[in-house]
Design goal:
By secondary structure, the chain is α/β, with parallel strands linked by helices. It is about 40% helix and about 15% strand. The chain folds into two domains: about 250 residues, Aspartate Aminotransferase, domain 2 (3-Layer(aba) Sandwich); about 140 residues, Alpha-Beta Complex (Aspartate Aminotransferase, domain 1), CATH 3.90.1150. Strands 1-7-6-5-4-2-3 form a seven-stranded mixed sheet, with helices on both faces. Strand 5, helix 8 and strand 6 form a beta-alpha-beta unit. The longest helix is centred in the C-terminal third of the chain and has 21 residues. Bound molecules: pyridoxal-5'-phosphate. Pyridoxal-5'-phosphate binds next to helix 4.
Length: about 400
C-alpha cells in the first residue's frame, strides 16, 4: 500500500492487519488466549522491561484486540487507541487518568447517566467537582472555567434532546487555558464526526452502539492524539483498573466495524424518511434531529457533523400514558434502550434511560413525559412507517376521549 492515510471506508476493513503475519488468514484471527509463552527467561525479562516487543498477558494487550485499536485510531484521526470491556470502562479510565483530588471537570449540559453517576462518586469520595453547562457559544464555555478545571468533557449531540455542543468554541477556550478535551462520540460514530481532527485530546465510544452495530457486544474504545500518552494509559490506568475488552468481543467488533460506513449511510437515509413522516403527524408536538432546519443549533450541526445521524427524538400529544400506549402499539419496532443496531429501537427516557434523574432536573434538560427516542435501524422504511402509523392511530382516539 502506498504510504498515505487510507480513506475511512478502506481503513475500517484493512487498517492494522497484515495477513502474512497470521498464516494468510483473510479475516483477523481470534486469539482467545489469556497469556503468551516466552522462548526463554531472558525474553520474559526483556518483555517486562519493555526492551522487546511482544505479548505478555492479555490484560496488557492481545493481537485481536490490537487490530481493533489500530483501526479505531486511524478512523478517528488519532495516534493510539485502547479497547475496554464497556463504554463506561473507557469513560472511567479516562476520568481517572485525567483528574486528581480537588480538580474540576466541566461537562456539557447533558451527559450519559452513568458518566454523571461516576462524577458524583468522584465528587463524594475524592472532591473532584463538576458542572454541567450549555456550550453553544465560546462565552458560555469561558464563563464556566475555574482555576481548578483540568478537563472539558462533552457529548454531542446530547442524549436524548439532540442539543449540540459547539466543538469549535470548546476547543478555542480549552486551548487558551491549556485544558484537555474529551468527547464522547458514541452518537455520531467516527463516520459522521471526528472531534480529534477539530482539536480534541481524546475521543471515546460506547462500542456497543454504532461501532459494532449488531447488538451483540458491550464494549468501549478510547482514542488519543498522542501515541506515547496512550501507551502510558495502557500500562497504568487500563492495566491497573483492568476493564479490558475480551478478544472475542474485539473479533465481533472487527466484523461489525467493516460495514460502519454502509450501515451509517442507511441509518441516516432511513432517519430522514422517518423524520419526514413524523413531521406530518398531528400527534407529534416537537421533533429533535440535528440536521432538521428547525433544530436550534442546525448551523453548528452542519459545521461539525457530516450527516444528521440515526437518532430522532420526538414528543407526542398527551403525557406519560399516551407515550406508553404508543410504545405498546408498536410491533416491528422494539422497545429497548441502546441504539445503533440493525433493529429499530424506541425508548421512553422519562421512565427508562433518565428515570434516575429527578423530574425537576429532567424537565430542565427538556425531557418531558411525552418524549420518545427512536434509534432508526436498517429495515425498509415503509415497514417502519407502517408500524409507527398504526401506533399513532391507536393513540389518537384515546386522546380525543380526554
Ligand atoms: C451507551 C453509552 C455509554 C455507555 O456505554 P456502555 O457500553 O453501555 O458501557 C456512554 N455514552 C453514551 C453516549 C452512550 O450512549
Amino acid at each position: 500500500m502506498r504510504n498515505k492515510e487510507m480513506n475511512m471506508e478502506t481503513a475500517v476493513i484493512h487498517k492494522g492487519y497484515n495477513s502474512s503475519e497470521h498464516h494468510d488468514s483473510l479475516v483477523t484471527p481470534l486469539y482467545q488466549t489469556s497469556t503468551y509463552s516466552f522462548a526463554n527467561a531472558q525474553e520474559g525479562e526483556d518483555r517486562f522491561a519493555g526492551n522487546s516487543e511482544g505479548n505478555i498477558y492479555s490484560r496488557l494487550g492481545n493481537p485481536t484486540v490490537r487490530v481493533l485499536e489500530e483501526r479505531m485510531a486511524e478512523i478517528e484521526g488519532g495516534q493510539g487507541a485502547l479497547a475496554f470491556g464497556s463504554g463506561m470502562a473507557a469513560v472511567s479510565a479516562t476520568l481517572i487518568y485525567l483528574t486528581k483530588a480537588g480538580d474540576h471537570v466541566l461537562c456539557s449540559r447533558g451527559i450519559y447517566g452513568c458518566t454523571f453517576g461516576l462524577l458524583e462518586i468522584m465528587e463524594e469520595k475524592y472532591g473532584i467537582t463538576h458542572d454541567l453547562v450549555s456550550m453553544t457559544t465560546e462565552q458560555e464555555v469561558e464563563q464556566a472555567i475555574r482555576p481548578e478545571t483540568v478537563c472539558i468533557y462533552v457529548e454531542t449531540p446530547i442524549n436524548p434532546t439532540m442539543e449540540l455542543v459547539n466543538l469549535q468554541a470548546v476547543m478555542a477556550v480549552a486551548k487558551k487555558h491549556g485544558i484537555r478535551v474529551v468527547v464522547d462520540n458514541t452518537f455520531s460514530s467516527p463516520y459522521l464526526q471526528n472531534p480529534l481532527r477539530m482539536g480534541a485530546d481524546f475521543v471515546l465510544h460506547s462500542a456497543t452502539k454504532y461501532l459494532n452495530g449488531h447488538g451483540d457486544v458491550v464494549g468501549g474504545v478510547l482514542v488519543g492524539r498522542d501515541a506515547d500518552e496512550m501507551q502510558h494509559v495502557r500500562m497504568t490506568v487500563q492495566k491497573d483498573v483492568g476493564g479490558i475488552m475480551s478478544p472475542f468481543d474485539a473479533w465481533l467488533l472487527l466484523r461489525g466495524l467493516k460495514t460502519l460506513h454502509v450501515r451509517m449511510d442507511r441509518h441516516v437515509a432511513n432517519a430522514q424518511k422517518v423524520l419526514e413522516f413524523l413531521k406530518r403527524q398531528e400527534l407529534v408536538k416537537k421533533i429533535y434531529y440535528p440536521f432538521d432546519v428547525q433544530h436550534p443549533q442546525y448551523e453548528i450541526a452542519k459545521q461539525q457533523m457530516r450527516q444528521g445521524g440515526g437518532l430522532i427524538s420526538f414528543e407526542i400529544e398527551g403525557g406519560k400514558k399516551q407515550a406508553q400506549q404508543f410504545l405498546d402499539s408498536l410491533s416491528l419496532i422494539k422497545i429497548a434502550v441502546s441504539l445503533g443496531d440493525a433493529e429499530t429501537l424506541i425508548q421512553h427516557p422519562a421512565t427508562m434511560t433518565h428515570a434516575a434523574v429527578p423530574q425537576e432536573n429532567r424537565e430542565a434538560m427538556g425531557i418531558s413525559d411525552s418524549l420518545l427516542r427512536l434509534s432508526v435501524g436498517l429495515e425498509h422504511t415503509d415497514d417502519l412507517i407502517a408500524d409507527l402509523n398504526y401506533a399513532f392511530e391507536q393513540v389518537k382516539p384515546k386522546l380525543q376521549e380526554i
